[in-house]
Amino acid sequence: MASSSSSTAKPMEAVRSGSVLSNVVTVLLLLSLGFVFGMVYNANFQESHLTPFLQPLPSLLRSSPTRSSPTPVVGCGVGPPSPSPTPPQAPPPARMGFADFLAPSGGGLAHNMTDEELFWRASMVPRVALVPRRIVPKVAFLFLVTGDMPLRPLWEKFFAGHEGLYSIYVHASPAYTGSPPADSVFYGRMIPSQVTNTSWGNMNLVDAERRLLGTALLDLGNARFALLSETCIPLLSFPAAYAFLTSANASFIDSFPTRKRHAPFFLRRNISRAQWRKGSQWFEMDRELAVDVVAEEQYMAVFRGDHGIANMLEHYMPTLVTLLGWGARAANRTLTYTDWPRPGPHPASYGVRDVTPELLEGMRRGNGECGSGASGAVEFCFMFARKFSGDALDKLLELAPKVMGFG
Length: 407
Hints:
four-stranded mixed sheet, glycosyltransferase, single chain, alpha/beta, 10% strand
């Protein structure tokens, strides 16, 4: 009987062992299926939610190739979950070529940079002398205006037919909300301003000038920079002005010694009497000096201080010429004619009754410190003149072909 009981127990133990083994295999199979399912789901999740910061660099520079759907798991009866629809992604930025670095993208002037950011960017200078492609130099015309430009049609005649050789930048009073017509070369040339207010003789006008220069420096093709106002007119044709400016070795900044006033100011700030200067704010400068102007901060802080001087605008740039050692690189005169009658705090102005061929020719020839155009035929001392009112426009347009050589 004992032998019979022992032989019966062995099959029962075998059955129990087989049942446990079967349970273990079943559990392991379920765990394996769960692991595979989780891996497939995780891969699908990353495929659908990959952020730009996790994408490889090439996908940021060109369109990503179309990705195929994950392959279902074969033989297990389990497939990946259906991917959730994702919102359309903006196309990646196009590759930038050399030409994109020569001028702001699209030629637009809109940006939201602060003065500090703009001047930092504008003051960068290439250190390699030989550029990979010839850059045609342009003259940047910087218009510092209060509002509308009544003499705009005259300037449009001046620029006509010379596209690619000039750039236009306009800084208007913050209160101005107008705009030139869409067919004007001045349309869309208003720069974004950080100046909250502008007033005569104040350093906030220097802020506006520096922002004009900084924005123009973003275009690497701009080689010369001329500051003008809405009352300025050209006294030469564009070809004559362009030839002279792009071949000049000097910048034209009015700067002459003055010791009659403000001695306590400059002596307290370590500015010598020989360095203290005065002159016209209207300049024509090269790119190297323009970079120095936007990068300079030490003396800007000095001139912004509480100094009790009414018109710092006429002292800052002329004095900066000597402080930064520009003497050998800057001609001690401006190319913009202004008549300052004595006595009087304001320059002479000209209306329709004042405009004659003799007046314009006299302004152009000036006081005898003359240069000549590329042909040597046109002698001049001044390239621009101010201060003309809007009612003189028709007369100026009439005389432009005969006296100034354009229109």
